[in-house]
Amino acid sequence: MADTVTASIRYVRREDNDRLATEKPYILHYDAPAGLLPNNFTIESFPGIQVRNLRAAGLRYEDHGMTIAKLDEASMSEMRRPELFDDDDWIERTYLPALHRSVCAALGAKSMTVFDWMLRKRSPSFPKRNVGEADWEAVQPSLSAHIDYTTKELDGRLDQYFGEEKENVTKRRYQVINIWKPLSGPCRDFPMAYLDPKSVDRDRDLLAVDEVFPNVANEVYQVYYNPKHKWYYVPDQLESELVIFNAYDSETGQVNAVPHCSFDLGELGSGIPRQSLEVRAFVFY
């Protein structure tokens, strides 16, 4: 696979700014009631984006918020069976302990607390979905550039996950991270792309958006296009390889929070429709 590929990345359209000056941006993750738009801003595809090889980039996690790590080799024989990831109990019993060991070793962290994971299975017709085809009801790859949390959202998550222990927990340095891997490799079908936070103008490029579900709303950042952005991906990522990327650091805030999304390799794409697992966690130092 080429070290640098040219692809399209989906961003928020800046022309929507006039309306958003008086109305908070939102996305509804359920059928919109009559008269209400499913979202009040536009995401469009920007072609001609250079996506570089993260393996060869020499970026340090401490400076750029992203790194590649290996899963614990002792666990890999079982990890190579994608069907096992359909079992939540197996994930908790087998995968997450192996992930804990691998992530703490890679980052030099003392402990990790997982608070969420999400299995994604691309349907063959994605980004359109045809009812009844394989995996049409599964969670699909996310195509728009985004950060999963704003600082405000993360403060609420601390209350939600740690409750009365929040004060003690936050006395230590901690980070909020994502860990992503394909369930089989090499991954050549809608791989992940990662935006170097050093190339992001946080004041101009990030838009706080409410993602609204039937019972909860989460505040995230969507991203505006900027020609200075530098994107990276992991060519032919294997099922034994993890990408760890930052969302928050208790010492530096979201300076190194990494916007990310899936993207289409086009003619370079191959293989079965992508299946992947992302895990979200607190790591403590």
From TrEMBL:
Molecular function in Gene Ontology: oxidoreductase activity
InterPro entries referenced in this protein's UniProt entry, alphabetically: AsaB-like
TM spans (from-to): none
Family recorded in the similarity comment: Belongs to the asaB hydroxylase/desaturase family.
Protein name: Methyltransferase
